[in-house]
Amino acid sequence: MGFLRLIRRYAYPFRDKTRIRLYALQHMQRRGFSKEGVPNGNDVVHPVLIIGAGPVGLVLSILLTKLGVNCTVLERNKAFSKHPQAHFINNRSMEIFRKIDGLVEEIQRSQPPVDLWRKFIYCTSLSGSILGSVDHIQPQDLEHVVSPVSVSHFSQYKLTMLLFKQLQNLGFQICTPESLEGNEQSCEQKIMMGHECVSIDASDDFITVTASSVIKGKRVEQNIHCNILIGTDGAGSTVRKLVGIEMRGEKDLQKLVSVHFFSRDLGQFLLEENPGMLFFIFNTEAIGVLVAHDLRQGEFVLQIPFYPPQQTIEDFSPKACEKLISKLVGREFGDVDVIDIKPWIMHAEVAERFICRGNRILLAGDAAHRFPPAGGFGMNTGIQDAHNLAWKIASVIKGIAPTSMLNTYEIERKPIALFNTRLSLENYKAAMSVPAALGLDPTIANTVHQFIVNGIGSILPSGLQKVALDGIFGIGRAQVSEFVLNESNPLGSSRLAKLKHIFEEGKSLQLQFPAEDLGFRYLQGALVPESNDIEGPPEVLTGRRRDYTPSAQPGSRLPHMFVKVNPLCEETISTLDLVSGDKVEFVLIIAPVEESYHLAREAFKVAEEQEISLKVCIFWSTDSVEGLEKGSETSLSPWKNYADVIEAQSSTSNWWDMCNMTSRGAILVRPDEHIAWRTSSGLAEDPRVEMQRVFAAILGEHS
């Protein structure tokens, strides 16, 4: 293998002399990408083209750029959306954001204080009776014991703006169709706004995307060539449709209308009376869920059930929405300003495939999976898709791995998407248990609607259908009238008791899932499973919160512990910070024992032969620092890429105990902070042979 690499290394300077610019061909040629067949000698073939400039596409472009991979982003809209959409960023996504310079700090500075959004509140109106409330932030969530960073409540469009700012700092520019006219080929490190992907052609040599834009009133098409194409273009993904990948799961769970509005007076009222993140409102005139994106700024989104064709989007005019808001609030605020009104459909689906066309077209984010919003899994799962994918694409582009390694993206991420689909469905059902307990079972409402659409009601004129639907729903909403819903009414008393039980037992909609957010694990893929690692039966999901238990099994995220990298340094960092975000580098964690040093030296040799960047971190416990004066220099000479790491005094347990391993063990961590391989209590095999086997298995090098 070393001999082949030597040949490849020195073969690169003999470049093709045409005017075609192709990037990183020394590895693309040997890994399956070719420079043959470009139709126009002036065409550029981009290493990576990303379709869709939402959070997932922007995060992926940032991570790739930091890893030294040029990419271009195509976005069909001419401007970024200002609709808040997703707003909850879980622990794992925030950990990924720590790899993006200053992003976490900006989010934390800009988000509302946690006491303003920690609760879900259930009521008959915002100024009426409180049916119950649930506090979703536990003390340990803020103590940074299992993660170096806490969850956040931050609107998607604000996050998009921060991500774009990061890309600007990395040299990206926004380009409109007009600014690119006559200079279409100079579009690397650009976000091409107003360019819609209308066709995809995958030849043996590269991918050709036809992008359509409007310049001076005329529609113009241009071809963009790339080696790898990633569709991050949302739930209605054009890329997914053009390559013929189907979605599988439950469609049309519920139709809703999303109303984005501002009211500083309402925000101030809730700040003083009952601050929270979500307000579930049930009264005789209306039902809805109010999402408080920022009480201080008075920014809200109201989610309202929607029943077409009897209802149309025209029924939700700004004036009609203002009236609905007043009914749900229980009083009028004169400063309500409706910004945007959007219908949407809730699905629970996962794409049949995440990758196709010889591993060169991939899907990520909502393009690959569509979840109910319960639990905030949509954007977070997509961000984690991007994190999984970035280092693998960089490994292929840089010649560290063959293109077949990209198969591990689907192998690893699709099971997570399927699991999160099930979990979000359970959480959605938990959310529906509250109105059901109040006599407002959503399944009955949907059955009534289907009866009117497809049953006897379908023979009625459309106007009468609407009157019938409104009348039946009005009768249904009477279940939450003061006459019914009070302690003096036996039926109402029974329902309120059932509701109290749901809240106390944690059976309502949950916000956080630490065990799943941090504890998800890849069982197969770019890793070496343990010989005794047998997949158990599918986990029974309840939709309830479960706490995270650290694990160092292959496929798990590296456990977090605060450590010091230098014995003289007082500053502590997370173990996650030992993994670089600026290069494709593996980290080998060992204890300061001779057999582990021997393993590390052999790992360095194998990594050098295979042109893999490797860093060794030697973990010293607080009771073994006597030998730290000399450190590891002598034991690892001549290798220099190592760090002596000391457990922080505040750590609650020994590192190896937390990992359920002995100090004779070793852990190999991937560039995405997931564990690729470990030996729990020493290595019986020849360490050199074992490291060759391990890197070959991870990177897909079988020669």
Automatic annotation (TrEMBL):
What would be one Gene Ontology cellular-component term for the protein? mitochondrion
Q: Which GO terms describe its molecular function?
A: FAD binding; oxidoreductase activity, acting on paired donors, with incorporation or reduction of molecular oxygen, NAD(P)H as one donor, and incorporation of one atom of oxygen
Record-linked SUPFAM superfamilies = FAD/NAD(P)-binding domain (SSF51905)
Q: Which residues form a coiled coil?
A: none
* Signal sequence bounds: none
The GO biological-process annotations, alphabetized, read as: ubiquinone biosynthetic process
The superkingdom of the source organism is Eukaryota
Question: Pfam families under this entry?
Answer: FAD_binding_3, Rng_hyd_C
Which InterPro entries does this entry report, sorted A to Z? FAD-bd (IPR002938), FAD/NAD-bd_sf (IPR036188), RIFMO-like (IPR050641)
Q: Which stretches make up the FAD-binding domain?
A: 47-417
Q: Flavoprotein: present as a keyword of the record?
A: yes
Assigned keywords, A-Z: FAD, Flavoprotein
Could you tell me what this protein is called? Aromatic ring hydroxylase
Organism, per UniProt? Answer: Vigna unguiculata (Cowpea)
